Amino acid sequence: MIKLSLSTRIAIGLVVGLGVGLAASATQSPPLLTIAIGSQPIGTIWMNMVRMCVIPLVFTALVSGVAAVGDIRKLGRVGARTLGLMFGTILLAGLWGLLLALLLVPLAPVSPESAAALREAAAAAAGEVTAQAQQVRGVMQFLLDLVPPNPVKAAADGALLPLIVFSVALGAAVGTLADETRQRVVGLMDALVAALIRLIGWIMELAPLGVACLAAPVAARFGWETIRSLGVFVITVVLGTTLFALIAFGALMRWAARVKVAPFFRTISPGITVAFTTATSMAALPAMLDVALNKLKISKGVAGFVLPVGATLNRPGSAIYQMAAVVTVASLYGIQLSPGQYGAALVTSFLMTFSVAAIPSATVFTTAPVLLNAGLPVEALALLLGVDRIPDMFRTGLHAVSHQTIAAVVARREGEEIAG
Asked: Among 71, 66, 78, 76, which Cα is nearest to 304's?
C-alpha cells in the first residue's frame, strides 16, 4: 500500500474542503451548506492546537538560536560580517516581499461582502481583529510596547513582539555566559524545541482534516475568490523568491564576492537542488559544505562557520513568504492595515525568521506571530498551509542560495580567492 506524504495528504484535504465549499456556494444546497459551514468548529479546534505551540516555540527557539551563536564579541570579523549580511538580506527580503505582495495581491480582489462574511465567520477573533486594525499607534508608544514590564503577562496576553524582544535579549545574555553554563541552557532550550517540534508533528498528522474543515466554510462563503487569492499568493512567493535570488544575491555574487554569476549558480546548484526538493536547509548542509570546500575552495574556518549558522538562522525566503501572507490575509478579511502595522509585521517577521526550524513548512507556524502583531487572524494560515508545498520549495531553495553566497562574500572579504 502506497503511503502518501504529509504534504500530499494536506493538499488532498485542502482540495476536498474547497470542493465541498465551492459546491455549496455554487448550488446553495442546504445539506452541503450545513456540512461546509458546520465543519468549522473541527477546524477551529485544530487551529487552536497549533496556536498553543506558538508562544513556547517562539521563546525556546529564539533563546536557543541567539545563545548558540555565543558572545558576538568573540566571533570577530567573520561572525560580524556573516551576521551583518544575514540580517541585512533578511530585512531586504521582507521589504521586497511586502512591496511585491502590495503590487500583486490586488490583482485578485475580494468583494466587501465576502470579506465581511469571513470576518463574521471568525466571530471569536473578529472583535480582536477589528480593534487591532483600528489602532494606529505612534512611534513612541510602539517603542514603549517593545519592552515588557512582565514578559510572562505579555505572553499570556498574546503580545508576541515584546516576548520576542525579551527572548532575543535573554538569548544574547546567555551567549555571554561561560561556555559550560551556556551549553547547559542551550541544551535545555534545544530539548524543549525538539519536544515542541515532535508535538507539532503529532498535530500536523491531523492537518488534512483541520485544513479541510477550515477551507470548506471559507469556500462556501467566498466561492472562486478563495482559489484566486491562493493562486496569487503562491505566484507572489514563487516570483518573489526567484527574483530575489537572481537580483539581490546575483548582485552580491558579482560585486561583493566578485565571481561570475551564471558559473557560480551552476557550481552551487547541488545544494540548491537538495534544499529545493527536500524543503529543508539542514538536509542540504552536507552538499553545501562539500561544494564550498572542494569546488569553491573556501577555507574550512569560513565555510564551517557560515554554512551551519546560515542553515540554523538565515531565512530570507521566510521573510518574503510572511510579508506576502500578511498582505494576502489582510485582503481576504478586508482589513486596511496602517503603515505602523506593516512596520510591526516587518519587524516581527525579521525576528521570527531566527526561530524557523529547518523542517518543511516550519515557516507557516512562525507566521502566526507576524499576523497577530499586524492585527490579523491566524485562522487563514490553514488555507496557506494547504498550498505550502510549492512556496516551501522555492523559499528553501532561496535559503541555499543565500547561505552559499554569504559564505563566498565573507571568504572574499577575508582575502580568499573563490574558485569557479
From this structure: 78
Quick: pLDDT tens for 302-311: 887 788 778 8
Dump pLDDT digits (tens) for 366-415. 888 888 888 888 878 888 887 887 898 899 999 999 999 999 999 999 89
Residues 6+ apart with CB under 8 A from 317: 93, 241, 244, 363, 394, 395, 396, 397, 398, 399, 402
Amino acid letter, 270: P
At 395, the amino acid letter reads: R
Determine contact, residues 321/329, Cβ cutoff 8 Å: no
Q: Which residues contact 22 (CB under 8 A, 6 or more apart)?
A: 219, 220, 223, 224, 226, 227
Q: How far apart are CA 164 and CA 373, in angstroms?
A: 11
Helix axes 40-51, 30-38, angle to 10 degrees: 10
Question: Number of helices and strands (H, E) in the chain?
Answer: 23, 0
State how far the Cα of 18 lies from the Cα of 220, in Å rounded to an integer: 8
Cell of 25: 456556494
Of residues 314, 327, 322, 313, the one with CA closest to residue 367:
322
Contact yes or no for 132/356 (Cβ under 8 A):
no
Rounded to whole angstroms, how far apart are CA atoms 97 and 183? 36
76, with CB counted inside 10 A (0-12, 13-18, 19+), is: exposed
Q: pTM of the full predicted structure?
A: 0.76
How far, in Å, are 125, 137, 232, 388 from residue 377 at the CA level? 6, 19, 19, 18
Burial class (CB in 10 A: 0-12, 13-18, 19+), 262: exposed
* Domains of the chain listed by start with CATH number: 6-413 (1.10.3860)
